[in-house]
Structures are given as C-alpha cells and as structure tokens.
C-alpha cells in the first residue's frame, strides 16, 4: 500500500489548498469564456466559408465548359475567393466577427447572385453551375454569428433572399414554386446560426461570472484561514493567560483583575469573530454584555457555537427585538450578580424554529418564583420588555438549584406570538 506523502522533515504533507488551486499562477493570464466563445464562432465561420469555397472550386473546375463566358466566371470566382479569405483574415485577426464586415459581405453576396445568374445559362439555374446560390446558402450562417440582434439578422437575410429571388425569376425565369423553398434555406441557416451564437456567448459570459465568484470565494477562504490561524495563536497563548489571571489569585487588585477579565472578554470576541456592531446586532450586543459584566466581576461564558456558521441570521431579526433580547439578558445577568451569590454565569444563543432564544443560567442559591426580590425585576425589566416585541420570557428556579432564564423573540411580525412552554414544564412565564 502506498504511504501518504510527507514533508521534508518527515511530518505528513499538508492537504492541497483550494484557495491556492484557484489562484492564477504568476504571469498566467486566463482566457475569458466570452473570448473563447468568440474564437469558436470565428472558427465555425472559417470552416463554413472554406466549405463554400470548395463548392465554388468544384463547380468551376468540373463544369467550366457550361459557361458561355468563362473568363468573367473565373473573375467572379476569384473575387469570391479573395473576399472570403479577407473575411476570414479580419475575423481571425480581431478574434471576433464584426457586424460591419457581415453587412459588407451580405452586399457582396447579393451582387454576386445577380452577376452569377447573368453568367449562367438559363437551364443551369438549378445546378451547381450557378455556384453563388449554394455558396451563399452555406456561408449565410455568418449572418447569424455576426449580428447580436435578431431583427438585424432577419433584415440581412431578407436582403439575401430578395437578391436570390429576383435573380432566379428575372434572369433564369425559374418557377415560383421552386424559388420560394430555396429562399427559405437562407432564413433557416441564419436564424439557427444566431441562436447557436447567442447560446455560446451567454455560456461564455456565465463561465466568466462563475470564475469571478470562484476566485472571490477562494480569496475569502484564504483570508478566513489566515484569520483562523491568528485566532488560534491568540487563543492558545494570550487569551488563556488573560483568563487565567482574571480567575486566579495572582492579581490581588480586584479592580485590575476585573479590567483583565474585560480585556479577555474583548479578545475572546475578536478570536471568535464577533465584533462590535450597532444596537441591532444581537451577537455583538451579547458580547458587549460579557465584556461589561467581566469588568464588574461577573464572569459570563457566552456559547454561540450553534449559530456561528448560520449565515445572515442576525439580519432577519429586527433591531428592536435584538435590543430587547440584549436588555433582558442584561437584567438577568444583573440579577445573577446581585442575588445568586456566585461570580459566574452561562449565556447561550441558538435558533429554535422561527425564534431566536437566549438563555442565562447560574448555579447560585436560586429562589422561589414568588420572592419579591426577583419578582419585580423579572416582571418589569424582563417580562414586559420581551412582550413589547412579541416575545416572552420563562424562568425556572428553586432554592439551592440555581436559576435558568429563557428569552425568546420571533423572526416574524411583532404581533406574532411564539409557542408557550411545553406542558408539564417547571418553568413559568413572566
């Protein structure tokens, strides 16, 4: 069995980096999808043109004796070859099909239909001897390639059709029932060519957009990995030291220890990617609470892991409900500091259905729900504040068992009422 690749020092080699794989190599200029689409259309035009020229060459070579005036016919065939090669050269050089070039080509082909009809015997109008008809039918796909608008394609096609119909009826006296189906061939080729070119160009544009998005995501992934690496270093070294100093007895000054705890809370928010925002940002508001309470001596562990990877959920919560949750959580933590007899609490934020839930839990002395010391704060500062925004608060406590406060606010309209506590639950609504 093949052993996994290893680095020069003998350690396992790191996994391939997706961000590095999507990043362009130095000096490498990627070809855009739109440019590739145009190149494919230029190639198709060139191949169709060469195929049309082969038909002209075969007609003149094999049936030259059928022309009453061979010299003008050879001159016309030479002009067709020269014009076609010029069209191909311009398109290849520009790597695109200019619409003005197609307009000039349509005029040339229309004139060529009349001239070739005049140089061809009447009875040979249905054969390859009248080489301008099969040539223009084959090369007419360039009309669909060159024009972006369908109206321009149809207008140029009608000019070709009119030239063919007039030459066939006036000069060759072909029957109308035969001329009309032949003329329709132009319309079929140009419209199909336009549809194919439109699809190809759109695919190239979509490819370019997807490439831009992929590169942006790769850049964001690289930045996030770098931030995570720095955060890991700060967490393992600086943050652990600050939190140890804030919790232990190494710092005798209470005020300074509270200051260290506040700075540790700020650093933890930075490491976890939660930054101070405006008043309507719930994660930032709760993190500010953690930092502020740390400066007063209350250590709060904020657990938001369950929502950290849920993109955009704070934007779905109206600012007034985010503010209500922060204010109610602040009051709950204040009551912990005043009445629980402990210096630590746990705060958790998570999503439950169409609601945001914030819980505050301490392992203090607890209380009976009827005690006046907690009753006013719960009913007025917490319960009423949550009811104002369509949410509610639940409390579960008992003497010696600590206190658990649950705050719930819906994502929906302010008048919507969230679900009540489950039947049989010991928690009571305030």
Automatic annotation (TrEMBL):
The chain crosses the membrane at residues 73-92, 99-121, 127-145, 152-171. The keyword Membrane applies. CDD domains: HATPase_UhpB-NarQ-NarX-like. Pfam families: HATPase_c. Residues 323-411 form the Histidine kinase/HSP90-like ATPase domain. InterPro entries: HATPase_C_sf (IPR036890), HATPase_dom (IPR003594), Sensor_HK_TwoCompSys (IPR050482). Keywords: Kinase, Membrane, Transferase, Transmembrane, Transmembrane helix, Two-component regulatory system. The keyword Zinc does not apply. This is Histidine kinase/HSP90-like ATPase domain-containing protein. It comes from Microbispora corallina.
């Amino acid at each position: 069995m093949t052993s996994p690749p290893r680095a020069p020092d003998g350690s396992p080699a790191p996994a391939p980096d997706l961000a590095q794989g999507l990043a362009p190599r130095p000096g490498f200029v990627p070809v855009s999808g739109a440019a590739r689409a145009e190149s494919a259309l230029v190639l198709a035009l060139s191949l169709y043109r060469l195929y049309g020229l082969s038909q002209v060459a075969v007609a003149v070579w094999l049936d030259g004796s059928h022309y009453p005036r061979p010299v003008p016919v050879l001159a016309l065939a030479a002009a067709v070859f020269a014009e076609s090669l010029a069209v191909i050269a311009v398109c290849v050089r520009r790597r695109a099909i200019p619409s003005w070039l197609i307009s000039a080509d349509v005029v040339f082909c229309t004139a060529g239909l009349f001239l070739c009809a005049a140089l061809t015997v009447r009875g040979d109008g249905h054969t390859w001897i009248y080489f301008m008809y099969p040539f223009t039918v084959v090369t007419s796909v360039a009309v669909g390639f060159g024009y972006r608008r369908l109206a321009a394609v149809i207008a140029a096609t009608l000019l070709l059709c009119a030239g063919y119909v007039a030459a066939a009826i006036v000069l060759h006296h072909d029957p109308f029932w035969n001329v009309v189906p032949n003329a329709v061939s132009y319309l079929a080729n140009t419209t199909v060519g336009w549809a194919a070119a439109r699809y190809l160009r759109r695919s190239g544009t979509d490819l370019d957009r997807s490439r831009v998005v992929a590169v942006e995501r790769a850049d964001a992934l690289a930045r996030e990995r770098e931030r995570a690496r720095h955060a890991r270093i700060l967490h393992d070294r600086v943050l652990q030291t600050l939190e140890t100093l804030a919790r232990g007895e190494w710092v005798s000054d209470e005020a300074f220890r509270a200051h260290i705890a506040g700075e540790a809370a700020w650093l933890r928010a930075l490491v976890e990617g939660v930054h101070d925002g405006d008043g309507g940002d719930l994660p930032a508001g709760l993190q500010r609470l953690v930092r502020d309470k740390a400066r007063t001596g209350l250590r709060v562990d904020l657990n938001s892991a369950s929502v950290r990877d849920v993109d955009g959920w704070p934007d779905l919560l109206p600012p007034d409900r985010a503010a209500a949750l922060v204010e109610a959580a602040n009051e709950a933590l204040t009551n912990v500091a005043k009445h629980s007899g402990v210096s630590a609490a746990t705060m958790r934020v998570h999503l439950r259905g169409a609601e945001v839930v914030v819980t505050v839990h301490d392992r203090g002395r607890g209380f009976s729900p009827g005690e006046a010391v907690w009753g006013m704060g719960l009913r007025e500062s917490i319960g009423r504040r949550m009811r104002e925004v369509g949410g509610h608060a639940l409390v579960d406590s008992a003497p010696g068992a600590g206190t658990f406060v649950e705050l719930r606010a819906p994502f929906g309209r302010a008048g919507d009422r969230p679900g009540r506590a489950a039947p049989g639950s010991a928690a009571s609504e305030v």
